[in-house]
From TrEMBL:
This is Facilitated trehalose transporter Tret1. Keywords: Membrane, Transmembrane, Transmembrane helix, Transport. Pfam families: Sugar_tr (PF00083). The keyword Transmembrane helix applies. The lineage of its organism: Eukaryota, Metazoa, Ecdysozoa, Arthropoda, Hexapoda.
Length: 96
């Protein structure tokens, strides 16, 4: 998704920052798991991480737009604010 979400001008730098944030998230899970396991037991720790993952799925389902069949320029225009939606315009004229 990095190739679709970020504009071409900043894709390299911001993509690296996104990867860094992802690795920091993994690091935090690895470091907090022993403490959570000790305080919440196995089921509680995995339940907490599962609930966080489910929350992320719900968030992305509602807030990440569908980009299937869209050009890179259409996607960049949407995320830069030049267009309000990624939906196709139905301005086709009817045939006589």
């Amino acid at each position: 998704m990095i190739g679709e979400v970020y504009p071409t001008q900043v894709r390299g730098i911001v993509g690296g920052m996104t990867t860094c944030a992802a690795h920091l998230s993994v690091f935090s899970v690895v470091k907090t798991f022993p403490f959570l396991k000790a305080s919440l037991n196995d089921y509680g720790a995995f339940g907490l991480y599962g609930a966080m993952s489910l929350g992320g799925i719900v968030f992305f389902y509602f807030f990440l737009p569908e980009t299937k069949g869209k050009t890179l320029q259409e996607i960049e225009d949407y995320f830069c604010g030049r267009t309000k939606t990624l939906k196709k315009n139905n301005t086709q004229t009817a045939l006589p």
